[in-house]
């Protein structure tokens, strides 16, 4: 899997948006099974579940956003939100860190997890 970094909040937001599209497509797919009400019902239920789940994800983003730290990006000078110890700028993908110890180091999403293990290796 190619490692493409992006801002975490943006990533979750596009995931939620994709869920809505999938839900609509699945529900639309149910129309092709008009002759079979049970299959149609399954499609519509799956579509609704997908849309409901995306709403949960949107709610979760809202919760995360309140915890995220708003910083001004040193590169593009726009306001962006940092989630966790390292994150990317929403606009120019400049790696940002809240931890002064990591400043100047190469960007690595692993800094967000398993701090102890990477120190041992
Ligand atoms: Zn920026």
UniProtKB/TrEMBL annotation:
It comes from the Bacteria. Keywords: Cell membrane, Membrane, Transmembrane, Transmembrane helix. Residues 99-121 are annotated as: Disordered. The chain crosses the membrane at residues 12-32, 38-61. InterPro entries: UPF0295. Residues 102-112 have a biased composition (Basic and acidic residues). HAMAP family: UPF0295 (MF_01502). This is Uncharacterized protein. It comes from Jeotgalibacillus malaysiensis.
